[in-house]
Design goal:
7-stranded mixed sheet, 25% strand
Length: 157
């Protein structure tokens, strides 16, 4: 499934809508270039989970934990692990835990990823002065396939 957005607020609304469908142990993978909208999406997801704290990119801390929502949010940026080392972080404890794990730059932790996840690939389609993005959703597992089929991520409604 592909969705085109033209404003950061639309990207956040997608995150909010998805949050209503999430369960403990869900894993969301976010891939795309710098500035493509990964953290913007996560801000919407956090808002949809009822998290009031400001969401910051975990680029230098690798993992930020937000415990104050309907479900805990574990926001990970594994870009710095591109030369290896993700196996030493214990990511599986987060993936099998009580919250929602959001993994930016998931290709750098590919060997650690669970079999069921929702992958979002953000592609910038910037013409001069625009914020156009294409977000492609790929579901692995029945739970995520059902979410995509439900229409909850339709921005037109």
């Amino acid at each position: 499934m592909k969705v085109n957005v033209t404003e950061p607020s639309q990207t956040q609304r997608l995150g909010e809508a998805l949050a209503t469908q999430l369960q403990p142990g869900d894993v969301i993978l976010l891939d795309g270039d710098l500035g493509a909208g990964k953290t913007t999406f996560t801000k919407g997801l956090a808002k949809g989970l009822g998290i009031k704290r400001n969401i910051k990119s975990p680029t230098f801390t690798i993992i930020r934990e937000y415990q104050d929502g309907r479900l805990p949010l574990y926001h990970m940026d594994v870009y710095r692990l591109e030369v290896g080392g993700s196996d030493e972080l214990g990511l599986d404890e987060y993936f099998d835990g009580d919250g929602v794990s959001v993994v930016e730059w998931s290709k750098f932790a590919e060997a650690e990823l669970p079999t069921n996840y929702l992958r979002l690939k953000f592609t910038r389609q910037d013409e001069l002065g625009t914020n156009n993005r294409e977000i492609e959703f790929t579901a692995q597992g029945e739970h995520f396939k059902a979410i995509l089929a439900s229409g909850v991520l339709n921005l037109d409604e």
